[in-house]
Design brief:
The chain has a five-stranded parallel sheet with strand order 5-6-7-4-8, sandwiched between helices. The N terminus is likely disordered. The chain has 21 helices and eight strands. The chain is globular, with a radius of gyration of 25 Å. The chain has four domains: 86 residues, 2-Layer Sandwich (GMP Synthetase, Chain A, domain 3), CATH 3.30.300; 198 residues, Rossmann fold (3-Layer(aba) Sandwich), CATH 3.40.50.300; 65 residues, Helicase, Ruva Protein, domain 3 (Orthogonal Bundle), CATH 1.10.8; 90 residues, Chromosomal Replication Initiator Protein Dnaa, Chain: A (Orthogonal Bundle), CATH 1.10.1750.10. It is 54% helix and 9% strand.
Length: 470
Amino acid sequence: MSDNALFEISGISFWESCLTSLQEIYKETNIYETWLVSTEFLSIDEGVLELGVPNELYKDWISQHFLKEIKQVVSSKLNGEITIKFVVTGKKDSVPKLTLSDEQNLSEELQVQKRPAIKPYSRIRKVAQRVPDCLCPSHTFESFVVGDCNIMADQVAKTVANHPGTNQYNPLIIHGQSGMGKTHLLQAIARHAIENQTASKVLFRSSDQFLKDFISATKTKNFALFNKTYECADLLIIDDIQFLIGKMGTQEQLFKLFTRALSHQRQIVLSLDQNPAKLEGMDRRLLSRFESGLCCAIDSPDLNTRLEILRKKAQEQKLDLSEEVILWLAKSLETNVREIEGFLVSLLGLKDLLKVELTIENIKSLLGEKKKEQNLSINMDTIQDVVAKEFGVESKLFATRTRMKKIALPRKVAMYLCRTLTNLSFENIGLKFQRDYSTVIAAIKSLEEDMEKDRDLLNRVEMLKNMLSY
């Protein structure tokens, strides 16, 4: 192909057509959205196509893992061989842009919030901090199973944990669907930073706790304590910030924390259940702050990753499974990490109760051939009755306003199972329990956090789930 022909190509539109083809190739994964959508056309000359990437991590990873597919797509469209060269441009993923008025408000707010300069992070005297009870002991980097679906998030998380505030990934945003390991990674960052004293003060908060702290400060008009708690953190980690959508006052406070923390080189790490660029109901100024850092996706585990998860979790639970059984399970359980762990817990319970050897045939007969297929005939009345019986309470009390612990816990379990085992919305579940949909969301989130720290509670909920599912 001649150079003249190459020059005639409209570079940007040409690369857009290439991206469309690559998106089709990787449609079953988040690879396109995580890695390739951030690339941009720079130039094409003398058989060399130059593509811009945000940073060195993108450059190295794309070159090592996706170069072959990119060259195939480009060469097929040019009807000739091409050399691909990646150039770091420093540009980030696109998110909704600020209007001129937004930019002016941001500039004014930065002036108002200006604080005296603090010492560089590396000079701050580090004091040993106790690991808080909210961090699950099993959520460490060592126990996190790494695969193609999450390796970028894992590597960047380790960099942030070792060098909070002094790396190029500030803020760090980790996103992915529920049960993919976001909380595990966030808590691993916090634990590593505390145990290795890479930050003077580490603060880990769920979005629910952040919201409660903000509401308390609002009611008592004591924002001094709130600001002191959050602004003193050299490493601030907030989990599941999608629950702040629509809560503009809380978002405003989070934006202020962002502004102050980043201006003082303090690290921020957040997680949410979708790409920030797709968020609706989130302050555009916050989205602009997200853009200044790095967004990492955690995808559904592929076959090899599911194999490693099954081996590791089976070993942790002292569950003796043959490689044949593990391979069958890995192929059958095309789901998230949390459900894979729950499935192993149910297998352990069945083995201990029934004293049955866990062969493929026995697992099929005991649990059904397809774990992911739910029994759609389950209704909320059945779930409430089963849970009430297990906890020794009356199901009619779930719809009352009582906050007694003996009612509150089974109520949360029933809400969780209604959401897990049916296709009902939060709103419909709330109507059954005489609660607002946001209360249902908070209750389910609270139970998931409790189960992460309480193995007995997790086993009890999984037992109820199996009773209702099969």
